Amino acid sequence: MPMPEGPHRDLMLRALEIEADGHRALLAGDRLTGARLMLQASRLYRDSWELAPPHSYGRLIGMLKAAIIAGEGREAASFVRAAIGEHADSAPAHYALASAALALQEDSAALEEAAGMSGGSPAFRRAAEAICALAERDRAGYVAALEAILADFASREEHLTGVRIADTALMLEMLAEERGIAARLSSPLLPAA
After folding, report:
1. Which fold, 7-179?
2. What's the pLDDT tens digit per position in 29-60?
């Protein structure tokens, strides 16, 4: 279903463009430019969320992923939690809250929210497995889940406006680094460490 036109759509599309530029910079090894662009994209996702129809959780997920990849996830995580509240009503809402909990180092909350992702698509279930492994500090489980996420992304033609990069995996790797269990997998879909 196409996104309804309006200012929220324009902001969302601009956020996607800037996020793609951020991924390109990261893949080229320019961490500083990549982080700056990801923060800019995160702010645009947030602005889009504030104008969008209710339950447009993809914008919150995009905002949080971009902020975490830029190394600035705590503020975005707090915003996600306040925006959704305690009434997550779908796998995307639980995914946003689970990721926010990880960014805030609240592993028990991450596990609780990941359980709500089980009714979602296979991609949500793969992300839930990785989130649970991170929350439990299970490196082997995390590496296996990350490999599955990367395999799924690798099977796609493209992701963000032609940039083939596993943003979910990249976000999870940033969170895994904080826990000392980063997979450090070699993949054309992840920037060089």
Report:
1. 1.25.40
2. 999 999 999 999 999 999 999 898 888 898 99
